[in-house]
Amino acid sequence: MSSVSTGVMPTDVLVVGGGPAALAIAAELAEQGLAVAVLSASDWRDPWPNTYGIWGDEVDALGLGHLLEHRWSYTCSYFGSGSSDPADSANSPTCHGRDYGLFDKNRLQHFWLERCEAAGVQWLRGHAQELSYGSGRSQVATAAGEVLEARLVLDASGHKAVFVQRPDRGPVAGQAAYGVVGRFTAPPVQPGQFVLMDYRCDHLSPEERSEPPTFLYAMDLGQGRFFVEETSLALAPPVPYATLKQRLERRLAHRGVAIEQVEHEEFCLFPMNLPLPDLDQPVLAFGGAAAMVHPASGYLVGALLRRAPVLAAAVAARLRAEPAADSLQLAQAGWQALWPPELRRKHALYQFGLEKLMRFSEPQLRAHFATFFSLPKEQWYGFLANTASVPELIVAMLRLFATAPWNVKAGLMGMQGRELALGMGLILTR
Ligand SMILES: Cc1cc2nc3c(=O)[nH]c(=O)nc-3n(C[C@H](O)[C@H](O)[C@H](O)COP(=O)(O)OP(=O)(O)OC[C@H]3O[C@@H](n4cnc5c(N)ncnc54)[C@H](O)[C@@H]3O)c2cc1C
Question: Which atom of ligand 1 is nearest to the CA of 42?
Answer without folding.
Answer: 47
